[in-house]
Structures are given as structure tokens and as C-alpha cells.
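Q: For a teaching session next week I want to show students how multiple molecules come together into a single three-dimensional assembly. I've collected the sequence lines for a complex. Could you give me the predicted C-alpha cells for the whole thing so I can convert them for display?
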Amino acid sequence: MSDVLGTSTTEQNNNVVFDRIGMTFQTDAGATQAVANVSGTIPDGKFVSVIGPSGCGKSTLLDMVGGILKPTQGSVSIDGELVTGPRRDTAMVFQEDSTLHWRSVLDNVAFGLEIQGVSKVDRNDRARRMIDLVGLRGFEDHRPGQLSGGMKQRVAIARALAVEPRVLLMDEPFGALDQQTRQFIGRELLRIWERTQNRVLFITHDIQEAVYLSDEVWVMSARPSIVKEIVNIDLPRPRPEGTHALPRFRELEEHLWNLVKVEAEKTLGPGALLA
Amino acid sequence: MSTPQIAVKTKHLGAGSVWRRPTFVQWFIIVALLVVLEAATRTGLIVPTLMVPPSEILTRLASIVPTSEFAEDATRTLTTILFAFAIGVAVGIPLGVFLWRIPAAGRILEPFIVTGYAMPTLLFYPILLAVMGLNAGPIILIAATMSLIPIALTTMIALNSIKPILHKLANSVNASPAQYYLKVLFPAATPLVFPGIRLGFIYAVIGTIAMEFILAAQGIGFRAGLYYRELNVSDMWAYIVVVVVVSVVVNGVLTWLEKRIRRDML
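A: Of course. Below is the structure for the complete assembly, covering every listed component.
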């Protein structure tokens, strides 16, 4: 471990590095270890997805990168700097609707910039560009209440992108959407990501989605979670609509499914998935 | 095949009929009530020691309202109400935030506050009069107490009902405490707090008028009480009408404000 930290400083300067990170929650029932000893690197410009059985601490991992949870063991660093709290160069998108219902779409998208103290002219200008990027032009003055679930998630994505994050953290952002909207927004996200080229850490429990979007898929084990395997997704980019039908896609999907199945059975009991 | 049936039903009352408009029906009820009261008082069905004809109340009003005495009474009552309400808001909202922020304090204090809500606080009025003297002080104190309780409770409930994801969002963008309160918590809570503020205002009005009625040196409630005790029925009713008009106007303003806020916020 120490030679990784010692020898590859230049490489590390453009990476998100997890160094033996762990999280133990103190509850009434005692200590619960949600995440144990996760090490890994998200290289610059890479799209990394994390999959694993439910309750395996995927969201905990993401919250630690976002600086809203402090790890109890180890550390996370972004571009060589230790994460000690929420940073300006990270932005989060959640599964639940996190739009502010009293604000217009424009003011929602500009929210992160407003908190950072960016002037009204500048932030509206940037917010408008993000609204264009996520395909919501014409809805600037609408309230979230007038939008569909998929559109609200686009607002949340635009808000995250508006601060021009170097790391985009997405916690099952399409989890609450229907299958069609999900695939459509997934394609949109790829298109946007190909333009912005920032790092993405994407939590999902949808294996197909993980394969389609990612450069790497990290499979987490059941609690206490470690990264069990890092699967390199060697599908060519850009990935057009037919990508799902490629034999290699099927292979990767099956491989990941087998990995996840073993872990899910540990949580749910053997044979649970056969019933 | 339900559509033709609905069409028939609509036709029954007439699509454009004035009777389908609530405001028209409401005004009709008011006018009808006045006519009935006028008739009942004039025929002696309601004896003059209880009520005089509405038309007579109106003529009394017309001569009372321009006097300087009325202006002083009205000013006293309105300033008392506004003071009590201002204290209710200034204490009630921070109290509600405190009860929400420190849940243990909330659990301990909530029964006391709810009891305070149910208790007729005005029973303490004579004691306060003895301590503070016959001025607006005791009235403001009691009306403010009555006013702050619903404001504090709804503030706490509104803050508790904010979706946890909004706290997480504020945290993730690294909002300062001031930004967190001003840009997330208060706007999110406002539509739910407003009914409590409205109730707080109504309580300030009720508290003020009721205590003036019991004992005071000045004020609209005091005049109504004075004429009640002097058996001056027409002047007593004139002041009751003033109270009713003030309540209706205030309620109208609050309803309008609430609608505006809800439209802007939701």
C-alpha cells in the first residue's frame, strides 16, 4: 500500500483514491461495520459504477467521497487532497427527488452556484447552458411540481453539473424512474459525460445500466463490504443504441450477475434467489 | 355512458346560473340574515334589550366612527393586537426552531405547550392586572402567549416534515448555517407554517378583545363591554359590528397572503 502512495504521486494527483477506507456506525444494537477496508482508484475521466447487494454500503462509500460522512478508518483523497468535508469540486445526485419545489428550474439548477457565491448573472448564464445540455430548454421558469420524475432528475443532474465538478457522485440517480425513462436518461448522461469528461462514481443495482455506462464496475461484497472485484468494461465508446445486444455486453453482464448473486445469497441466505 | 347524465345534471341548475357561484350565495346568505334580523327586531320577535334592528346599528355606527374617542379606541386595540402578534411571531418561530433542533427539548416541552394551548390563559388576567396595573401590558402579555403557541407548534411540525433529502442536499453543497436556514429550511417550511401564523393572529385578536371586554381603560372590546354593562344595546352592537368587520378584513388579508405564498412556493 505504502509504495502506491509513495511512488505514483503524479498519477495520484489526477485520481480519486480510496485508501483502506472503512465506516463503522454506532447504533443502539452496537457497532455495525458498513464498509471495511475498501481501496481503489478512479482515474481521471473515468466512469466507475459500484454494484453490490442491497445494504452493502454503496451509498456510504459515495457519501464519504462527497464529504458528508467521515470515514472511521482510512481516507479518501481527490487529486492528492484529503477529503475532510463537502468540496466545491464534487457534486452529488440522489435517487430521491431533491429539487427545491419553491424554486424555478433555473433557480434550482443555479442553487449550487448560488451557495458558492457566484454572481446572479454568471450563475444564470451557466445554469441556462446546463439546462440546454440536459434537454430542458423552455422549462426554465417551470416549478418542479409541473415536471415529470425524469425531468426532475435532469434538473438535479444539471444542478450538479453547473458547479463544474471534477468528480460527479451519483447515488442510484435513475432508481425511481421507469425502465424507458431510465434507459433514455442513461444515454443522455453518457452523451453529456463524453463532452464534460469528468470522473463519475455511479451507484446502481442495475447490472445492465452499470455495464452500459461504465469504464469499470466495482462489485462490492455483502457486509462488511469490500471491493470484491473490479471488472473492466472493454466495450468501445461511443456506445450506440445496439450496444446492449453485443455478445461482449452479454458476457460482462453475466459475469457481473454471477459475482453479485454469490454476495446476495450471503445476505439473503443460500438458494434465496432460486425461489 | 356517464357523460350524457352529467350534461343533464349541469343543465338542471343552468351552467351560467349565479347560484353556482359561491360568493354570490355567500352574499345572499348575509343579506337574507340581515333582512330576517331587521324583521325580527322590528316586529318584537327579538326584544330590544337583546338586539336593535340592524339599520339602527348602522346609524349608531355612522355617528360613532367619526368621533375622536372611536379613533383612540381603535388605535389602542389595533396596536395591542399588533404588539401581541409581533411578540407571538418573534418568540414563536425561534421557539419552534429550538424544539425542532433539539428533539429532546421538544419531547420534554411539547406537553406543556399543548396544555398551554388548551388552557384558557385569560384566567390569569386579573392577577397580571394586579401586578402590572391597568394598562395594555397584561393584555399584550396574554394575547402574545395565546398567539405564540400555535406558531411555535406549527413551526416545529413544519420543520420536522421537511424531506431528509433536502438536509442531505444542503450538506452536500456545503451550505453555511445561514444559507441552510434562509435558502432551504425556511422556504421549505413556509407553506406549512403559515396556517399557524394565521391562527396566531386570530388568537391575538381574540385575546385582546376578550380582555378589553373584561377590564380595560380603552379599546373596542372595552367599549362593547361598557355598553353591555350599561344595557346600551344599540352602542354595544355597534362595537360588536366593528369587531366583526375587523376580523373579516384581517382574515381576508391573511387568506390572500396565504394563497400568494402557496402559489409562489408550491
